[in-house]
Amino acid sequence: MSPTSETAQGGRRLVIVESPAKAKTIKGYLGPGYVVEASVGHIRDLPNGAAEVPDKYTGEVRRLGVDVEHDFQPIYVVNADKKAQVKKLKDLLAESDELFLATDEDREGEAIAWHLQEVLKPKVPVHRMVFHEITKDAIREAVANPRELNQRMVDAQETRRILDRLYGYEVSPVLWKKVMPKLSAGRVQSVATRLVVERERERIAFRSAEYWDLTGTFATGRAGDSSDPSTLVARLNTVDGRRVAQGRDFGANGQLKSDVLHLDEANARALAAALADSSFAVRSVESKPYRRSPYAPFRTTTLQQEASRKLGLGAKACMQVAQKLYENGFITYMRTDSTTLSDTAVAAARAQVTQLYGADYLPEKARVYAGKVKNAQEAHEAIRPSGDRFRTPAETGLTGDQFRLYELIWKRTVASQMKDATGNSVTVKIGGVAADGRDAEFTASGKTITFHGFMKAYVEGADDPNAELDDRERRLPQVAEGDALAADEITADGHATKPPARYTEASLVKELEEREIGRPSTYASIIGTILDRGYVFKKGTALVPSFLSFAVVNLLEKHFGRLVDYDFTAKMEDDLDRIARGEAQAVPWLKRFYFGPEGDAAQAGPADGDHLGGLKELVTDLGAIDAREISSFPVGEGIVLRVGRYGPYVERGEKDAEGHQRADVPDDLAPDELTVAYAEELFAKPSGEFQLGKDPVSGNEIVAKDGRYGPYVTEILPEGTPKTGKNAVKARTASLFKSMSLDTVTLDDALKLMSLPRVVGTDAEGVEITAQNGRYGPYLKKGTDSRSLETEDQLFTITLDEALAIYAQPKQRGRAAAKPPLKELGTDPVSERPVVVKDGRFGPYVTDGETNATLRRDDDVETITPERGYELLAEKRAKGPAKKTAKKAVKKAPAKKATATKATATKTAAAKKTAAKKTTATAATAAKKTTAAKKTAAKKTAATPPADA
């Protein structure tokens, strides 16, 4: 079968894909006999709540959405926001002669195709159409060679979905009862959170150690050049044959782990002085050949890591950009565990190596990369440029993040088929005797690259910003053993050991993959989930656990230890993969996991099930869980950090006891920064409720409080005052001025603040002018005309004449004089424009003049790094101009509705005439009715796999 207009004339073929963007690209490659429509992700799933479950189901089935008593039968429902799209697909199918299910070629895509078949119930031939790149040839090949649905892949995805539902729906309620409402637990997200928490625990327990060494600058005594420098810098290695301590010699407790010489400042400076007039000579020169092979082509996780290091893109933003590149035909499928390249791709890469770099850079044989990922889906290729001839970045016409990510993928793919880089590494040892008789030996290391090979095209980044990249050369002077050297300078250098670095998105992805936890294709959504849940927040690019996550992980470790055990989670992943390969059965395995070892668990498969057992029993007996204990963490000197329902706080002493102290802890405080001294500062700050006195008019008590949005004053209404209904009375409330504080505000200040808005007077036409304090600062209001005031004090001092003078000036459209930036961050690597932090109507934001991105709750103007600023801008660009489109759709909705209604009436009338007219009207009605729904759904649901529960 070929997708040409000639062969398509015999009938109409419906092709269903996941996303509208993918549909648009594919439609251009098929003839007029093909209709391409999007399902817009999953159309059917487990219910989100009991309200969505059909009435015939009761009890546990209604709560879980899974019938655990009858072989874990899932209850599927069509998503509420997909019903209109399902109707449209059914209408299109009714007019089609064949159905092609063209969803992605992975477990998630296979499941979407199966659900489409189950819901649409086609009575025409059904074909499974698969491809891993969207090019004309690939699409036509896929249409001409369809296959059947792979039921084994569908069952594997279903088993994962059921497992994640049971885990999430059984464990999450425990967190609601014992920690805080609306929390969630998940098979992978909870383990990922534990990793971040454990790293913070290591930082809290860490004790820094100070150590010193010497750095010497030695001269050869001859004029140097770029190939033969005249000096070299070497670091002290041994004193009297004993190695000098470096950072790696100290443990996390600050103590030495090995028998080395620990120099303090006094000894280091004394040794430097004793070596000042010493003679030095080269004691040895050791040269070794250097060879570095190319990196494998990208798979999902390595792409996310490099996009983070080189482009500042988070995992989620990276996958959003990659999805656009794939759907528009620029790259192959972006969710893959494979590093394999097809023969066509290898030929294309080798052709570009010769064309761009010359035959000298092309190895004799094509390079083959074996998959390193366990259970990799080898049917997929690595992520590479699409087609049998790779477009160079300049030929794509792409811009911004799409251009940068494509360029990264293109470079990596081409480099993977180039020759090794070769050179030499050299170690030089220099010795001398100090004035006090001690023998000191310095060491210098160098590297020269004689043939750059693949490095001409691509060099991999590093998670450690201080790490040296592969293509960095360190040239040393050409010296030989016995050569005399003069010490130009010898300095004593102090160092301190540092705590282990926090995870970044890139390093967490790497850690999860190395531990074989979860599937690489879901890591972006997992990281997004733990950020959205408030378990983790960002400081720069670092992932910092919240105090809330400490409480959650504490509970899970103590009472559900197996569920967050790294080896157990990896073993579960192995089990799920064995089920996918047909080596184990899903239902017996689920029974063992949920009910424990009772029953026929042995049927789960060979050597399987011993590590499982009894989720249901674990979540049933909660009496042993002490909610206060699992949410309490000692700080020191009797101070305890507690995680309460309204946030973290520090406490000393028992409530209502003498000397009891309590203070709220900022949500964005990193746990390793909470020291006894900081807690004392929090205790010393004014907090709680300050009684200011009674309002002489109403008699109500006036108090000052520190609220979520800052300090404010309010009145306490008498008991019995109606708060709802027609007669409801609302307490007067006003925010403090920036110049005020809780411990200095007075009753008079409060009454003045609550008297706002103040009537300034009326203009010549009798229109009232008022002074008001709004969300964006103080302003005047006359009818619908508002004018900003310069200071808050003007709210009480401005006169009518001054107000009229302001209104006499022409109204400033847009902004007044531009405010100076709060901070300058540098040049954005995408737009190549200067990035600054500004203060806007909705708070501080970063901008490069083209794109604006509001700072998140966890970002601070003072501490935000350039990398974090670039990342925020990259995420904003990746989202695209979605909001503007949504507004247009909302405005046009009534018109569309009216049109649809009119079309329906037309259809009804036409139905009385002829069947042919009825068909036409039906098609028109369906198209108009679903237009708005289609646009909205396209934005609400990305065609990406959901995170686990």
Write the layout of secondary structure elements.
Blueprint: H1 5-8, E1 13-17, H2 20-27, E2 34-38, E3 44-45, H3 59-64, E4 66-67, E5 73-74, E6 77-78, H4 83-94, E7 98-101, H5 107-120, E8 126-128, H6 136-144, H7 151-178, H8 189-205, E9 210-219, E10 231-239, E11 242-243, H9 265-274, E12 280-292, H10 300-311, H11 315-327, H12 343-357, H13 393-396, H14 400-415, E13 421-433, E14 439-451, E15 484-496, H15 505-514, H16 523-532, E16 536-539, E17 542-545, H17 547-559, H18 566-580, H19 586-595, H20 615-620, H21 627-630, E18 632-636, E19 639-644, E20 647-652, E21 661-664, H22 676-684, E22 690-694, E23 701-707, E24 710-716, E25 733-735, H23 747-754, E26 758-762, E27 768-774, E28 777-782, E29 785-788, H24 794-797, H25 800-808, E30 823-827, E31 834-840, E32 843-847, E33 852-854, H26 866-879, H27 882-911, H28 915-940
Parallel strand pairs: 1-2, 1-7, 7-8
Antiparallel strand pairs: 3-6, 4-5, 9-10, 9-15, 10-11, 10-14, 12-13, 12-15, 13-14, 16-17, 18-19, 19-20, 20-21, 22-23, 23-24, 24-25, 26-27, 27-28, 28-29, 30-31, 31-32, 32-33
Structure description:
- The chain is 35% helix and 20% strand.
- The chain has 28 helices and 33 strands.
- The strands form 9 sheets. It has a 6-stranded antiparallel beta barrel with strand order 9-10-14-13-12-15.
- α11 packs across α14 (400-415).
- The radius of gyration is 34 Å and the shape is globular.
Key phrases:
four-stranded parallel beta sheet; single chain; 949 residues; alpha+beta; 28 helices; 33 strands; six-stranded antiparallel beta barrel
